[in-house]
Amino acid sequence: KQEVTQIPAALSVPEGENLVLNCSFTDSAIYNLQWFRQDPGKGLTSLLLIQSSQREQTSGRLNASLDKSSGRSTLYIAASQPGDSATYLCAVHNTDKLIFGTGTRLQVFP
Amino acid sequence: EPEVTQTPSHQVTQMGQEVILRCVPISNHLYFYWYRQILGQKVEFLVSFYNNEISEKSEIFDDQFSVERPDGSNFTLKIRSTKLEDSAMYFCASSEAVDTEAFFGQGTRLTVV
């Protein structure tokens, strides 16, 4: 059974820092991995999708990597801003569904 | 930019009542999903739907749940007899294909009292 874990559970950093969020999964038989952002009480905003054949994907200040064989993905956020404060979720696409991690709650303070 | 739309944003219902949550997926998408998130917990998969039938469902999706695509645009989740533990945020999602990016709606917060 696929399990997805995210560490750290929470992170508080000053504005401008570069930071790394980690995601690990137990079954490497995935179609892809998707990173989402969730603001309190809101929906899920897709940030990046990495296909299982890809190693890396970039969008603006975000860079996600995937090492399928070791069951790991990282989300790198460059030059963090207070507006980046949110919960970040990773999800692996396994058959017809996404399996989510518990998330990393990020706070960026001025 | 196309988006997944859910209505209502918040629904309060009495235990034992039936509720229908509605979703309008992105128009050219073929795969539709329902997920739920109990407060403070993980987002959990409920059901996937393709070609007018359920393609996969979780253990949570028991006989009290059903899904329907009544016309060419709407996708609904019905809970027949709500329980207190059904209180959660329910998210609808859609994707073009089984292995492409999934887009989520803003959710319906269901409160069962």
Descriptive overview:
The complex is a heterodimer of chains A (110) and B (113). Chain A has 110 residues and is mainly β. Chain A is built from no helices and 11 strands. Chain A is globular and about 40 Å long. The model of chain A has no long low-confidence stretch (mean pLDDT 95). By secondary structure, chain B is mostly beta strands. Chain B has no helices and 11 strands. In chain B, the strands form 2 sheets. In chain B, strands 2, 4, 5, 6, 9, 10 and 11 form a 7-stranded mixed β-sheet that branches. Chain B is globular, with a radius of gyration of 13 Å. Chains A and B meet through strand 4, strand 5, strand 9 and strand 10 of A and strand 4, strand 5, strand 9 and strand 10 of B.
What are the main properties of this structure?
heterodimer, A: 110 residues, mainly beta, 60% strand, B: 113 residues, 7-stranded mixed β-sheet, 4-stranded antiparallel β-sheet, globular
What's the short version?
The complex is a heterodimer of chains A (about 110) and B (about 110). Chain A is an all-beta fold and about 110 residues long. Chain A has strands at about 5, 10-15, 20-25, 30-40, 45-50, 55-60, 60-65, 70-75, 85-95, 95-100, 105-110.
Itemize the secondary structure elements and their pairings.
The complex is a heterodimer of chains A (110) and B (113).
Chain A: E1 4-7, E2 10-14, E3 19-25, E4 32-38, E5 44-51, E6 56-59, E7 62-67, E8 72-77, E9 86-94, E10 97-100, E11 104-109
Parallel strand pairs in A: 2-11
Antiparallel strand pairs in A: 1-3, 3-8, 4-5, 4-9, 6-7, 7-8, 9-10, 9-11
Chain B: E1 5-7, E2 10-13, E3 19-24, E4 31-37, E5 43-50, E6 53-57, E7 65-68, E8 75-79, E9 88-95, E10 103-104, E11 108-112
Parallel strand pairs in B: 2-11
Antiparallel strand pairs in B: 1-3, 3-8, 4-5, 4-9, 5-6, 7-8, 9-10, 9-11
Order of helices and strands of chain A: EEEEEEEEEEE
Structural class of chain A: mainly beta
The most extensive contact between chains is: A-B, 24 and 26 residues
CA-based shape of chain A: globular
Instruction: Report the sheet with the most strands of chain A, covering strand number, pairing sense and barrel closure.
Output: 6 strands, mixed
The major β-sheet of chain B equals:
7 strands, mixed
Taken as a percent bin, the fraction of beta residues of chain B is over 45%
Order of helices and strands of chain B: EEEEEEEEEEE
Low-confidence stretches of chain A: none
Oligomer: heterodimer
Rounded mean pLDDT of chain B is: 95
User: Overall mean pLDDT score of chain A?
Assistant: 95
Structural class based on helices, strands and sheet pairing of chain B: mainly beta
- Total strands of chain B: 11
Radius of gyration from the alpha-carbon trace of chain B, in angstroms? 13 Å
> If helices are DSSP runs of H or I spanning 4 or more residues, what is the number of helices of chain A?
0
Cα-atom radius of gyration of chain A = 13 Å
Number of strands of chain A: 11
What is the end-to-end distance of chain B?
Answer: 37 Å
Q: Choose one word for the global shape of chain B.
A: globular
Q: N- to C-terminal separation of chain A?
A: 41 Å
